[in-house]
Design brief:
CATH superfamily: Electron Transport, Fmn-binding Protein, Chain A
CATH architecture: Roll
Oligomer: single chain
Largest sheet: 7 strands, antiparallel
Shape: globular
Helix content: 10-25%
Strand order of the largest sheet: 2-1-5-6-7-4-3
Distance between the termini: 12 Å
């Protein structure tokens, strides 16, 4: 599956799941990921629970539910690779998705990169042939 094409063509709601060192799972609404390449995605993250969880447990899961009738979408199984605080890069990405970073929001943000370990459909284990 071409992730760039998929996220360009589909609107919907994203949920990022992370867990803390004690394996307590947290879920948070997140925008579409920024596609670096077909095996790497990135999210702009504030210094909140999801970001803090990733400092001790690098695995995450992202669920994207497509807008419209029924249950269509994808699930990404992720491993955090690195993070960057490059303010100019983060601001440029935020302009592409202003809903995640309103101009008046001057909080610290991180650009967090993930390896895509697996892409699965929203329902079932494999994509239809």
């Amino acid at each position: 599956m071409n992730l760039s094409d998929y996220f360009e063509k589909n609107d919907g709601t994203g949920i990022l799941a992370t867990c803390d060192p004690d394996h307590n799972v947290d879920q948070a609404v997140y925008s579409k990921p920024f596609i670096v390449d077909e095996t790497t995605v990135a999210f702009v993250m504030k210094e909140r629970l999801s970001h803090r969880n990733l400092q001790s447990h690098l695995m995450a899961s992202y669920l994207f539910l497509e807008k419209g009738p029924g249950y269509k979408g994808i699930r990404l199984l992720l491993t955090m690779q690195r993070q960057d605080k490059n303010r100019s890069l983060i601001e440029a990405l935020c302009k592409k998705q202003p809903c995640i970073c309103p101009e008046e929001d001057d909080s610290d943000k991180f650009l967090v990169f993930f390896k895509v370990n697996q892409v699965r459909p929203l329902e079932g284990d494999t994509f239809p042939a």
